[in-house]
Design goal:
The complex is a heterodimer of chains A (about 210) and B (about 200). Chain A is α/β, with parallel strands linked by helices. Chain A has eight helices and five strands; from the N terminus they run H-H-E-H-E-H-E-H-E-H-E-H-H. Chain A has a domain of about 140 residues: Oxidized Rhodanese, domain 1, CATH 3.40.250.10. In chain A, helix 4 links the parallel strand 2 and strand 3. Chain A is extended, with a radius of gyration of 22 Å. Chain B has about 200 residues and is an all-alpha fold. Chain B folds into two domains: about 120 residues, no CATH class; about 70 residues, no CATH class. The mean pLDDT of chain B is about 90. The chains are: A alpha/beta (about 210), B mainly alpha (about 200). The interface between A and B is medium-sized, with 29 and 41 residues.
């Protein structure tokens, strides 16, 4: 028998079976309290300021910053490209499309992490995917990106590499001016040479 | 149950080790199927040798069926499988560059290393070109980052986009694959070439 016919004989019935059976969708929609606590404890929801700074500068289209503070605070200062969804309005219908999707990665931030974590927990409990929290919030952002501290001279090399990255990222994102209202201070400003922080990404396949 | 590494049934290092073993197996099969010859890959374009098409398409539908059956039996959670992000523009442009490279060079990145491992000089030249390409891309990133990141579509699956269930789409793809194999065999008869 020709190999092609043999293959067809085997694979077409298999295809028919798989087309006929219902898809396995047994995944629980909501998390149990245990699972949620587990996720919160392992801190999987956090994304570091370095990663976020890197994505802002590279104009990575795969993420959306979401400011969960109130409108006044948002207008005073926000990160480049961020949109405002005050945590009180989180469940409003007009934001569902933004929060419940699997295209972009949403990054919640507030001054600290408490409000952002509230938003994360609520959306997580609703079964929404792709929502993360900026580690340390804006306070930490100011500390590490806009006003990084030079590490002690005895620090390991990685600390210096991190510092260099923070310094150049801070410059590109308007560092030094810290809390002044600089909403339009976006990535359009001159970009210094930037060594990108290593981004964890799963290896892609290919032949 | 699966995927093993995501569910932490095996450690990241074990995962890497398994990938290493599978990689060796992959390279071995590539070499044994004759993919270390540049004529094999270029043959798909000219129609005289379509083994590459058949091997990779068969591998794809086999893996697809395997995953779907595994999911059916509850052995793997398909939601946890990594799907490549789609940047439409760069996928098209990159596809064209890569396709042109296949025809001109006669290798794809994987098979070029396969060829190099058995000492093919053209494979070494191809790898050199590969690194030049990487260098140009990296150094010129500022020039094409706009295009590179344009039209981000998330992590779509074709079945979702056209609104079919995974199973029905898989069946259609099998039919498409088998018909393509028929066309490929026809092409091999129509455009024969001296054996090399």
């Amino acid at each position: 028998m020709k190999p092609l016919r043999l293959l067809a004989l085997f694979i077409i019935p298999m295809g028919l079976i798989i087309a006929a059976v219902p898809q396995n969708k047994t995944k629980p929609y909501k998390l149990t309290a245990d699972q949620l606590l587990g996720e919160a404890n392992t801190r999987t929801q956090y994304i570091t300021p370095e990663t976020v700074a890197d994505m802002i500068i590279k104009k990575d289209p795969s993420f959306q910053l979401i400011d969960v503070r109130n409108k006044d605070d948002f207008e005073k200062f926000s990160l480049p490209g961020a949109i405002n969804i005050p945590v009180a309005d989180l469940l409003s219908d007009k934001f569902t499309d933004i929060l419940n999707q699997d295209v972009k990665m949403n990054i919640f931030y507030s001054n600290g992490t408490i409000t952002a974590n509230e938003a994360w927990m609520v959306t997580r409990q609703l079964g929404y995917k792709n929502n993360l929290v900026l580690e340390g919030g804006l306070n930490y952002w100011f500390d590490v990106i806009l006003n990084p501290q030079k590490p002690a001279s005895t620090s390991p090399d990685e600390e210096f590499a991190k510092y260099d990255f923070r310094l150049s990222a801070g410059k590109a994102l308007g560092g030094g001016m810290a809390v002044q209202s600089n909403q339009n201070q976006s990535t359009e400003s001159a970009k210094p040479a930037l060594q990108s922080a290593p981004k964890k990404k799963k290896a892609a396949g290919g032949c | 149950m699966g995927p093993l590494s995501v569910n932490e049934l095996i450690s990241a290092n074990t995962n890497l080790f398994l990938a290493f073993i599978i990689g060796i197996g992959f390279g071995f099969v590539l070499e044994q199927s004759g993919f270390s010859s540049s004529r094999k890959l270029a043959g798909v374009f000219y129609g005289y040798d379509t083994v590459v098409l058949k091997v990779f398409f068969t591998a794809a539908i086999t893996a697809m069926l395997g995953l779907l059956f595994f999911s059916l039996f509850g052995w793997i959670d398909l939601n946890l499988i990594y799907v490549n992000p789609t940047y439409l523009t760069s996928a098209i442009v990159g596809g064209m560059i890569m396709g042109a490279g296949f025809i001109i060079g006669g290798y794809c990145p994987g098979t070029s290393f396969c060829g190099a491992s058995i000492g093919k000089i053209d494979a070494f030249v191809f790898i050199g070109g590969l690194f030049i390409g990487i260098l140009i891309f990296a150094l010129g990133y500022k020039i094409w980052d706009g295009m590179y990141l344009a039209k981000f579509l998330g992590f779509p699956k074709i079945s979702q986009t056209i609104g079919l269930s995974d199973g029905v789409f898989a069946f259609l793809l099998i039919i498409v694959a088998l018909s393509m194999f028929r066309v490929a065999e026809w092409a091999e008869k129509k455009f024969p070439r001296e054996e090399y």
